[in-house]
Each structure stands twice: as C-alpha cells, then as structure tokens.
Amino acid sequence: xxxxxxxxxxxxNGTASCSSLxxxxxxxxxxxxMNFLPSxxxxxxxxxxxxxxxKAIEILSCIELSKRVxxxxxxxxxxxxxxxxxxxxxxxxIGNINQELFLVIYLNVKxxxxxxxxxxxxxxxxxxxxxxEIFKEAFMLSACKIMIAHNHxxxxxxxxxxxxxxxxxxxxxxxxxxxxxxxxxxxxCNNYFSFKQEGLIN
Length: 202
What we know:
Elements (H helix, E strand, L loop, with lengths): L2 H9 L8 H12 L10 H5 L6 H23 L7 H11 L7 E7 L5 E9 L9 H11 L3 E7 L9 H16 L3 E8 L4 E3 L8
Parallel strand pairs: 3-4
Antiparallel strand pairs: 1-2, 1-3, 4-5
C-alpha cells in the first residue's frame, strides 16, 4: 500500500465531496510530505475539510504509537551495533520539531540506553547548554557513556561553530570524569550528521 492508502485506512470515511484518499492527499500536502506528518497538531488537522477532532486524535494516536514502538525497540538494542534503529527513533522523536532541542542519551557499558533527557531548548550555544547539567544527570544514573543529539529545524545538517565548540567542551569534561563520549548527532526529519563519522571527534 502507498502512504496515501495507509493514511486513508486510518481516516476510513470521506465526505460527500472528498474521498478518504483525497483527504489523505490534503494531509500530506499540508505537512509537506509523510516525513513531516508527526509535526502536525490537532488544530492543523482540523483545518482540513473532512477531519473532525475525533479523527484528528485518531491520526495523532497512530503517530504516537509508532513513536513508542521505535522507542521500545531502541532501548533493547546495542546502539553501536544498531545505529539505524537509533537514527530512526531520533528522526521521529526530535527530527520534526520546529524548535531546536538538545537531547542527551545516557548509556551503560553494553551500549544500552539507560535513559535520555531533553535538557535544553533553543539554539545550541554555550550560554544555553550547561555541561554541568549533562554530567549531573549522568552521575545520578550511573551512566558510563553519553551521546548528545540535537535537531536542526531548517533541515540543514551542517554543524555550526557553536555546535563544534560545545561538543569539544563536553568531550573535555567527559574525559576528566571518566565518562565515554560516543558521538554528537545532528538530526533532521529523515537524515542525520554524525560528528564521529565525519571525523570531527576521535
């Protein structure tokens, strides 16, 4: 089934003037493509002819369910040997958000996620990202490894000077407190940039 057909199944019924497939097309157009579907709000969905509040809730519930399935899946995996599962989850979790979010992932010695936390919101820079908060949480969780990720709402994955500088600062502190720093990922709705893969960190 195509994306529009799957969405039409969730919609189920059309209106006198629009079929469920046509309503699905309107939803896809409104969000700018299926990758951006998780960014739609209930109010935006209700602006589409044929979508009432209950139907909007049903659609958003399907999206939330898919997020939770991805989350449960990644927490059971070694993220170093299963990087695609990690990226799929992050794409869904923060890739479609219109505000920059700075997320820290805390891991055990087997590279399994212990926990994760969105610690900062807004443009990533030294004044907003406080490394003390990152490592305070790490100590509380007894994490031995960390990874950081943040989204670029513009979908331009090029790291800024601020991205590079804060990464270097966090790496230095991680070395001092004997916590392994795995990577810094910049996330969009369907892609990512890895500092480690691009040789920006050792």
